[in-house]
Amino acid sequence: MNKNNVLGSFLLVVTMSAVLGLYLLYPLNEVDLSKPQVHDTSVYTPEKELSQTEYGKKLIHILELSRSDPIFASKELNKLPKLSAAEDLAIYQAYRLMILSNVAQHQQDAKAVMTCLDQIKTLADQEGMQWLKSQSLVESAIEYLKEGELATAEIQIRSAIGIAESIRYDELLVKAYNTAGAINNVRNDLQDAQYFFHKGLQLGKQYPKHIYNSKLMSNMALLYIYLEDWPKALRIIEKAKKLYFDSGLLEDEAIGILYINESFSHLSSGDVVKGRIAYEKAEALNSEKVSNRYKILLLRAYSDVLLSEGNFNTALAITNKCLHSMGIEKYTLQNGQCYLNRALAKMRLNQGDLLLNDLERAFTMFEVVGSRSWKVLGLRTLGEYYESQGDLETALYYFKQYYHGNKALLFDKRQSDIFLLEQDFAKVTLEQENELLNTEKDLNKLVLEKQQLRNRIVVALIIMIGISAALLMVRLRSIQRANKALLAQSTTCELTGLYNRRYLEQLLADPMPFNDTSFGISLAILDLDYFKQVNDTYGHDVGDQVLVEVARRIQQHLFPNDVVARWGGEEFVLLLSGALDPQQQLEIIRSAIAQTPVDTSSKPLSITTSIGASINITPEQLNSDTYKKHLKAADDALYEAKESGRNQVVSFKK
Question: What is the mean pLDDT of the chain?
Fold first, then answer.
């Protein structure tokens, strides 16, 4: 510490000592220690603006109606007065489109839904309405999820969450977290699904009447169905029902799906009677108002009941009806489930005709969707079929595959239980801390009421000690900030904010700090296509803008243990921890860069990238002696991607 700092600290101590002397000489004033009520005004909602006009209030009411009574909502919308161009605000146009989108969804008009979403996106871009853009991205993700296009849905929902979190659009985030969890549910990334559902449920506590509180709980129950934890699934379904009825926004399809899941849970746990009762409640809600997807779910649920009851002939007829339902080809998972149930019915009836074909179709569809739990069930059924045919070698192969898949699901169940235990522990700890704080507050009040000299002297001594400690802490933090700044300068790219080559090389030379996964570790090199032309044509300032935006898009699709570094120029190197299939994750990153032009000070530029990767590396294979070999393999793969036409991912397995 230099002389100036020492002198400054000395003067501060002398000044505070004088203040404390005055404090000891004069009686204390009354002090209100009650915690001030802080009202958070940073949370965004477009309804604040709309509710300022009568026209806006009517739009809010009609939007609420469109969720439960779309026909009446459509009539009310048509009754609204026509506005002049000057009066018709962008937010009015946005709400009218949102109402029309809800109406189209209830009418199962997918084309009209997508038209509305396109118009919403265009309006959002034209008017710079970030909240509306995030809303359209969520709705688009839901439509892609229904169609089974999970990769596209993932890109849409991650972008939506990023925007909504940045502007604190919490009401939309409840819905967005549910959608993100549902995407991960379908492909059985259950830990990620649980993470998003938990975030949604925590945020939903601030909005007790939010319809998605029930849907979040319903999807959480589905997660435990995938984990085959039937008692927990049934308990959560009961909570979801209560939330559904408390919301007041009654949708037959939403409660019907809860009954369908309840039926499946009862049947799977061996209670056939309760399984049929729950199915019949779902069937009672079948009407012209529900979607084709719901009708298909009902047929699949009915075939589950019949198979459990041993009524295989009727089950066969119902699965045939399911497989010939209108639009069944759009719902890949349900299509596969109906093929599987038809195969099970044929197996029990000893009908070999096309049975293996049904099983293979079901298995292929489960692989396309990426649903591990149904894939595991398909593996077991294939094993049983080949065993019944006397082909023991093939049966053994499928039973082994079933064993390994089921083992992975059991691991996910254990991780899920650990997650819940951690949440319970955090809750108990917070309650204890609050109790301690309240006790301390009461004691402080008592000390102030007595106003005794001895207590004031003790307070003065404590403050003096605190000042000394604070001086030390200030100096220590100053040193820490300086060290941190030096470290950041040596390990961070100043332009993009990413790690630099030095940092990544140091990281690769050390043992990996995370556990191995079924996908292993991957090293990937990402190189922007024709980037030199960008610099030559538009200048290096525009090139820098492109690099910053590309870095941001890459980071949006990384998991907690993943690392990205700017290697040099337009090259980035990624270290993927294996939280997701690396080929799929890299394809998502490639698509995120290529799909949307990069806004620059010159003009929007379409940028593509080529990616080469070395995948399935075990932690033991990656160390200070070998990482350059794996980088070389990724570089060779990148070269092949460039030679094969660019804008693609090429991976080499180790």
Answer: 80
